[in-house]
Amino acid sequence: MKGVTREKTVIHIDIAHFAVAVERQMDKGLKGRPVLIAHAGAQRTPVYDMSEEAFSCGIRKGMPILKALKQCRECRECRVISPHPARYEQAMNLVAKHAGAYTPLVEPGVNDGHLFMDVTGTGRLFGPPVDVAWRLEKEIRKTIETAPAWSVAPNKLVAKVATRLVKPTGEYIVGAGEEEALIEPLPLALIPGILPDEQKAFSDFHISKVIELKQWRLDQLKIPFGDRARFLYEAIRGIDPTPVTPPTGKEVSIVMDHSFAEDTNTMAHMEQALYALVEKGGRLLRRTHRFAGILGVTLSYSDGLREARQVSIRPPASTDPALFKSARHALALALKRRVRVTHLRLTLKKLFSPPIEQDLFDMENREREGRLITALDLIREKFGDASLMTGRMMA
What we know:
Layout: E1 10-14, H1 18-26, E2 35-37, E3 49-50, H2 52-56, H3 65-75, E4 79-81, H4 85-100, E5 106-108, E6 114-118, H5 123-126, H6 129-144, E7 149-153, H7 156-166, E8 170-173, H8 179-183, H9 196-204, H10 210-213, H11 218-225, H12 229-235, E9 254-264, H13 267-287, E10 291-301, E11 306-317, H14 320-334, E12 341-352, H15 363-383
Parallel strand pairs: 2-4, 7-8
Antiparallel strand pairs: 1-6, 1-7, 2-3, 5-6, 9-12, 10-11, 10-12
Helix pairs in contact: 1-4, 4-6, 11-12, 13-14
């Protein structure tokens, strides 16, 4: 009705220890015991995720694996599992699909079990937001066999704070006008978006709680924090105007992953792994009669940081040599640090179906290359992948 405004309502889903939950679905023997997800081959590799049992032993995300294993031995023995990012992405997409049945405004996290939903105005179709959250919780239990924490609140920031208060499981409902009262007694560490150097600055001022920082006016916050002052001023009052933003421009892509048995910074090892991914990706493209227009390489370093780069493929290609040429370029762009690499991901995007405009002057070479690749594909399909190997894969 014209002139009627609806109170914004946001649901936040937080599946604690998401990667562990996915791994436990694959291996039932992991349930009920401490689990660490990390590359165990390198001493400094950080913990990617851990189970609630390991969390109770004092293990945290980002902790060096050696320190985590020592604490685990002091508590009780842990099982260490290598990360499988493709599994977590698939599970996250499935959770987002469940949420998308209730609203188009779904903002999933990056394979971390977090998800925001804007359910404003959906009551006539699906009932009160609390009922939607209850139904989604049941669907998540069936999907990955674990219960999430969830909250209903007037904005994203308050919803995230609320789920932090009830993790690993539970629910919290914050009504309109209750935002400031919820946040005021809390430690600043629970407020999303406050940066580590800002936390340190607050500590230098002997401020650790929201109620203490609320004594500062906006103009006072601007002196040490500049442009960040407005965000801080609003965040500690439960104000968050940011919308729930669904992923945009998401297109069909081919994603392949390789985890190194031992962390490496040797280019030959990385190129060998990259070529193996290119062969798999190229074969899938050719099997589905498609060409890739964009290729991306993502490197995960042993200190927990990631670097991603992508390049255009002109003209779009599906043969291994053409794809690998672009892959090497993307790898060189991404490899800007001396830290060892634990994981490599290859992404093929902007997929085309024929006809593709080809280079007229290179047509003969392309046809010859295409016939060779087709022959190799047929041999491998008949006798297995190991029946033919390039010299690069023999290193």
